Amino acid sequence: MSEHLTRLDVYAPLSGVLVPLSDVPDPVFAERMVGDGVSLDPTSSELLAPVAGIVTHLHNAHHALTITTDDGIEVLVHIGIDTVMLRGEGFAPRIRQGERVTMGQPLIGFAADFVATRARSLLTQVLIANGGEEIHVAPFSGPVQAGRDVVMRIEHRPVTTELTMHSDHASATLFSEPVTLPNPQGLHARPAAVLAAAAKKFRADVRLLRGKDEANAKSVVSVMVLSTQAGDSIRVQASGADAAQAVRELAALLAAGCGEGAGESQAAASAPLTRPVTAPTAATGVASANPDIFPGVAASPGLAVGKVVQVRAQRIEVSEAGVGVVRERAHLDTALREAVRDVELLKREIADASKAKILDAHQELLADPELVDLAVENIANGKSAGWAWRAAFTLYAGELEGLDNALLRERANDVRDVGRRVLLLLAGVTHAKIDVPTGSILIAEELTPSDTATLDRSKVLGFCTVGGGATGHVAILARSFGIPAICGMDSAALKISDGTEVVIDGSAGTLRRNPDAAALSEAHARMTRHAARVEQEKAAAGAPAITRDGARIEVVANVRDAAETREAVAIGGEGVGLLRSEFLFSDRDTAPSEDEQAAAYRAVAEVLGRERPLVIRTLDIGGDKPLSYLPMPREDNPFLGLRGIRVSLDYPDMFRTQLRAMLKAAPVGNLHIMFPMIATLDELRAAKKILNEEQRNTGHTAKVGIMIEVPSAALIAERLAPEVDFFSIGTNDLTQYTLAMDRGHARLAREADGLHPSVLRLIGMTVDAAHQHDKWVGVCGGIAGDAMAVPVLIGLGVDELSVSVPAIPAVKALVCRLTRSECQSLAQEVLQMGTATEVRARLASFAD
């Protein structure tokens, strides 16, 4: 480089480990379309200024910004991958666009756990956006500390940056027709980089026009500064020798979404974020830039290092021609009966009874009349039982995969699993159990629930599949077993040789082939830290959860049966805060009898004993939870119709049967009966009247409580409290009814945040009303087990947290690290905020 060049050191905006840009699982960054630089795997969550200068661009989603130095160097920092889809949720900017900042100044706070579980990756890119022949970028490597260590060194001649330009051109100026921008988040870093790269191919001066605003189409930063939004009307202006071609091609590129096509980008923007966003794969036309990193969908969290074992589907050959309808039909019936028996035996091998119930659906499928009739029809047409059955279940699975409902599409794998089980019996072939060496990472086109349930978990450290999704039964089983899993993997992974060393990251949804020494060291260090923390939490889980200033918080479990209750008690659960009784009523043709219910309730009570509380919720159906044998009128909006206690009051005989069954658990347990979806005082009194009558009839009594799930109940909590013994807040429904956002809605689910200030205010109002009448309050909704939410719930005065069984040790350990006084101050602070994003950013900094 010439001696006239100037040197600039760019400092770490976050603490963490530097990663080569080529390893980033996004081709726009990996191929340096935005600019040259480095990526950083962060361990902190407060973004600091890597250089001094002016913030020339702050994206409206607050996940990215550009600082322009006095010498004209544009340093772009982009937090995470696909974080633009969060629309600012989880990010809290500390500065404004146009401000001058000093190196090391805090710029953006973000909720790392929240963002990491909702975006494809937390890898943060630090890039020189106006690179060229006059700018040389030398990235560094290794661990770095925010604000202290250099991440890259720049040598350059002073440059000037054109952010918003306008000039008169001697040559003819051409314009495109207006283009309606299809990108849901506007031209953020990725589409802006694609557009700029395309514009640079032309000699013409090319601009984007939006009303009176314009941007240099060849500058990534200039395009982003335009701050476009979906639906904006954009025109391309060009002047120069190839202006006509530039206008034509760039207008078409804008209309197509600049590599983020309207359909694809809309799907990404509307995808529910209760799980990590689907990573790009070859199937979507985008592959990882690093051939040794294979992206997929995060299905089960965790990290493991092992060696690849490719699992191939077992081939099953059957003849097409049958040997007579009677014989073939008898052959099919025998195979179906044997398959039912085999599934029952397999269920007994799964220790977790709630997960074993996944296979109940397989037994139902084996008796599915449409599926069986389809096979019988084929037999009647002269086909063999094997050929007829395979044609039937293949067609059935194909129909499911063609549905709009993603959950139903994933059930196609269950149909194929059941189908193959019967087909093996018809062909007289023994099912090949997956037998692998110790330390194996499985890769398969598809694994069935049966395959997964029988994996030897002392040998299998994790698995990846090309098919499947995060809500499929295979993923659910993987999470229950505690092994990392990835689905939706690029099919290129099927070509990885057996014995290849890999790192599987189920949390990020990536598989890394042939990791180097640094990557292996980091993986082992993370695994060691995680294992040590889990062991520490488990070891201490038997002790009560008491804050450092002496506040006692009960940590209890949400369960569905006695098996889950035993598991909860074994790892420190102090009782059951929610027994979901509707699991007794679903997946069957008739309602359970009083004796059947009583046996289930007593079994849970016996596990807990007389000291630990047992809270049983009465039947909570309706809305999204119908029963096949309980005819209910069609409703335009079932979530605002017959739900929860309203159904029970409409079917008093069924309600009385359930109450009598519950009361039979009173002699052996500390029984609490809880009514769901109470919205009015009249509903509560009507339910209590029936309960009081059954208590007199049986001679047994129980504590009585209600779920606070609708705003009306929270608003009249002071009037409800004298009528009950306790409240339990169901934050999932309370959130959706408060914000008028269906928590299952594809586009709104991510915004239906239980940490929205309005929801927190209702929780605080409920707690205050209950405590005025010396009644206790629990939380049994999703945020009770959210580490970020626990401090604010304690600060609001919540007495009990009812969480999923695996979360018990971690929540108890967290409670013991806090003080109620600091939590109270925190709660008062966040109650004054206006958005969930602000709340989460503050809670993230509190956790740090």
* Overall pLDDT metric: 81
Structural class: alpha/beta
Total helical segments: 29
> In which range does the helix fraction lie?
25-40%
Strand content: 15-25%
Instruction: Note poorly predicted spans.
Output: 159-170, 261-289, 404-408
What's the oligomerization state?
Answer: single chain
Radius of gyration: 30 Å
Strand order of the largest sheet: 9-5-6-7-11-3-2-13
Q: How far apart lie the N and C ends?
A: 42 Å
Largest sheet: number of strands, sense, barrel closure: 8 strands, antiparallel
Q: How would you sum up the global shape?
A: globular
DSSP summary, beta strand count? 35
Kindly describe this structure:
- By secondary structure, the chain is an alpha/beta fold.
- Helix content is 36%, strand content 20%.
- The chain is built from 29 helices and 35 strands.
- The protein has an eight-stranded antiparallel beta sheet with strand order 9-5-6-7-11-3-2-13. Strands 20-27-26-22-23-24-25-21 form an eight-stranded mixed beta sheet.
- Helix 7 (325-348) packs antiparallel against helix 9 (360-366), helix 16 packs across helix 27 and helix 18 (594-608) runs parallel beside helix 20.
- The chain is globular and about 95 Å long.
List the defining traits of the structure above.
8-stranded mixed sheet; globular; 8-stranded antiparallel sheet; 848 residues; 35 strands; single chain; alpha/beta
